[in-house]
Predict the structure.
Amino acid sequence: MEGDGNEISRLPEELLASIISLTSPPDAGRCAAVSRAFLAAADSDAVWSSFLPRDLPRFAQGVLRRAPPSKKGLFRCLSDQPALLPGNFVSMWLDRATGAKCYMLSARSLHISWGETRQYWEWIKLRSDEIQANKSFGEAAQLRGVWWLLIRGEIHSTMLSPNSKYAAYMVFKLADVFFNLDFPFQEASISVGGNDSTRQVCLQACVEDGDGDDGVPRKHILRAIASWENQQLPRASYHAIPLTDDVMLPRKRADSWMEVELGEFYNGQGCDSEVSVCLKETEGGVYKAGLIVWGIEIRTKR
């Protein structure tokens, strides 16, 4: 199909663009390799306007100043890295495969119980390499120690793409000193328009893809580290904890952070309600420390 003499390539560019716009961004990229006629149609603003959300949010001043003027350039800019919204506490990017809007709620945008009381939480600056890798927020909330752990993030459903399945993820690290984030398990919940879903998660754990012949993922409880500058802190007991399939465990990310899925939901056409995402452990009566919260990601799930 390389030659421009191909029958399909002889179709008017407007018609080719109309057909390609019914596909997906990856398909448009493949169409561009068919012929020069397909390239012109596949790269046109008519095609990429159909992949861009019609209701893009307002971005922080200067965020898109380097974005190419074409619709394809704008799509690539927004799918390559997050773009900050006004206030610099929330960022948005586009899913490469579908063009759906995805968001990151920074730790500053979350409701963290006792989050402004330094006895329990402190705000730390991220390293320059971490900020550069994530193209986003420069600080995180570090848990010094609490009995009552409650973190909640909210976003309105109209900010999301309709007819899309989403999942929410806590993005975090464990500090040099951490303990009692393994058990009792934390409870994660998502509420959308009166529909609630809950699950158990374990922050002081990790699941890794199996590297053996069986290919079974390996689940690990991370051993607590409970001393700092020669000062002994309450030491967590290390014991066998049953990691059943209904307990969601974190995974390591390419950017050196960890993430754990807090739940999923479907954003239907015309949905107009608050999406509330919550992580808590408030009933175990256990003092816990060492959680570093970067934020909550809400992104499409296929």
Remarks:
- The two ends are 31 Å apart (CA to CA).
- The chain has a mean pLDDT of 87.
- The helical segments are 13-20, 25-31, 36-42, 45-51, 71-80, 128-134.
- The longest strand covers residues 164-179.
